[in-house]
Amino acid sequence: MTVGELLDAATTLLRTRVRLLLGVGFLLALAEQAVLFPLRQLADVTYLVFPGEDRWGWYAILLLVGFGTETFGIAALGAVTASAAPRALLGTAAPARPVPVPKALLVVLTLTVLSLLAGATVVAGPAVFLLLGLAMPALVVDRLGPGAALVRSVRLSTRRGLRAGWIRLLGYVSWLFIRLATGVAGWVALDLLLDTGTAAGDHLAIGIAWLLVNTLAYPTLACLDAVLHLDLRMRTEGLDLGLRRALSRRVSCDNALAVPR
């Protein structure tokens, strides 16, 4: 698929589990804002006000923790979207792909810790984002263990000139602009409604605005990861041919979807 078709496919996948994904997305975004709210107060920053000279350290911590919570949210939702992707692609012919919860939690925590460590070095941050985004689909769809799923993500992401990684980055940046624009508009509207005239009120309005937009952004980005994973396997491993043969022979598609351990 082209980049535009991949983005459309991610939206289509979202619609197949819209209530579940938005519900989980809301809970994750709510937890994220609960973590970021006190940090936002310590950094004393809003959309239109940068931190003072004595608050830049707290601002850096706010950005780093925000990067970590984003990674956690997208990866956690990735387990649900990866589980739904085969059924969305094949219909009732798709084999069951339940989420292995303990393994998925281990991958989510690993990705979050790696994101925090890489983000602290600044330079390594983009590398983690570009290379490890397909770990959850590899765990759920490919039926690999946590360590093998991380390695598999790196191998898949580096194919075709980092195609999957660049498309993932494009999706993230696109949603970043959407979130910033929506967040600013929401903050202004909520600030007028709350009308507290205090920094805490501004921080609360920002948190509510980000909560609403991230409820949609995180599930959509997780759906993009699942779609990218299947598309890349079709491009480089002939997954579509294997699935077509299985369907024509009326046998299970499980062998075509799974990869050797």
Summarize it.
The chain is mainly α and 261 residues long.
Give a written overview of the molecule.
The relative contact order is 0.15. The chain has helices spanning 3-16, 18-43, 56-90, 101-121, 125-131, 135-140, 146-157, 163-194, 199-237, 239-248, 254-257. The radius of gyration is 20 Å and the shape is elongated. 79% of the residues lie in helices and 0% in strands. α2 (18-43) crosses α9 (199-237). It is mainly alpha-helical and 261 residues long. The chain has one domain (3-257). It has eleven helices and no strands. The model has no long low-confidence stretch (mean pLDDT 86).
List the helices and strands and how they pair.
Elements (H helix, E strand, L loop, with lengths): L2 H14 L1 H26 L12 H35 L10 H21 L3 H7 L3 H6 L5 H12 L5 H32 L4 H39 L1 H10 L5 H4 L4
Helix pairs in contact: 1-9, 2-3, 2-9, 3-4, 3-9, 4-5, 4-7, 8-9
